[in-house]
Write the structure tokens for this entry.
Amino acid sequence: MSRRTIYILILIAIVALSGIIITQIYWVRRAYNLQEKEFNDRVVIAMSAVVDRIQQANHDSAIVEPVSQPRSSYFVANINDTLHPYFLETLLREEFQSLNLKEDFEYAVYDCFSDSVVYGARINFAEDERQPAQSMNMQKRFKNDGHYFGIYFPNKTGMVIHQMDFWVFSSLAIVIVVLFFGYAIAIILRQKRLSEVKTDFINNMTHELKTPISTISVSCDMLMRDDVGADQQRRRQYAEIIRNENERLKAQVERVLSVASLSPDKLKVNQEVLNMHDIIQRATTAQRIHLDEREGELNLELNATLHTVRGDKVHLTNVVYNLIDNAIKYAETKPFIYVKTYNEDGRFCFAVSDNGIGIETKHQRMIFDKFFRVPTGNVHNVKGFGLGLYYVQTVMKAHGGSVEVKSDPGKGSTFTCKLLNNE
Ligand code: ADP
């Protein structure tokens, strides 16, 4: 499946899922509003009934629309009569229970003139079925008009949501579908990338192995010719070519196989005390010949005052060597390389900067993956198997260190490695 087809399919699926999510949000909101309205209506009916019964008990006339709702969780009822808290609580319990309202609430009696609470309590249906506050002074009463009472539901939203189990369940199912979809997309893209990396690797491998194989084949043809076979010197010459090319092939295959099977936990690292400045100098000297071939320049700025670490000499030398090797390989003009060391938070850091082709941001995350090479189509002017940086990262991890890249396409890259200081 081409990348374009995958993206189109993903886009269609995203649009469809967004439609489902929007519809679900719309219906959940509607269901919530309906549920809330039903609850509000029942509270208003219960409170109105309480007001009516208080008025009746006092032989007073009924009040029209005595209940108002200033806030979503707060209801107020006006009373023009003597209010006894014990009686009020009993009535509230009775009326709320008769309408199957089992939600805990707080109620308070207010003085109209000062707007202050003169009495307040909390009713918890679940906790006790006891009668209203036994400690309450039965004689307590708020005489005549000038009082009103309010009811507050501290957990109204939670209670309304609690009654929407079907919607909660269906929303959860949709969240699971979305998560599953995201996971499936991640897997598809990962598989796609792996298959691209695999194709690239096969192309590279073919390219790298073809030359020695065809050289060996030509040499064999020559050896089989009677005139060449009879000439001892030429025979020896061709046999040597075959041996050298064979060695080269063997070395390449071994390198690929040994690095490809590496992992930070399998890599055995010695724990010698190493002077990293010496190691950097050794690696740069080894690269000097390649640098001279390209008429390049390499500057060292060894600023770290603490430059000993515990680690493996061979592997760490290879790390520096690989980074400088890449800096030379991926330069389009004369390579200009800068190796800098410094100390930071108890760590020894070294950075290799170059003026090469740079790496696009979207590839930077993957260059440390096994076999990954920045795609260049079918052009292979720079040789490699995409294992150098994988090796660097594996070695750094095995030493408890890290490697990171900063790169500006067209301008150059900087690879920074950090290791714990030994001091
Ligand atoms: P190889 O060089 O053998 O392909 P590496 O693992 O060393 O493998 O590098 C992976 C890829 O990262 C390279 O193919 C190249 O595209 C990119 N890369 C690495 N180092 C540099 C650099 N200094 N400048 C630009 N690109 C780089």
Summary: The mean pLDDT is 87.
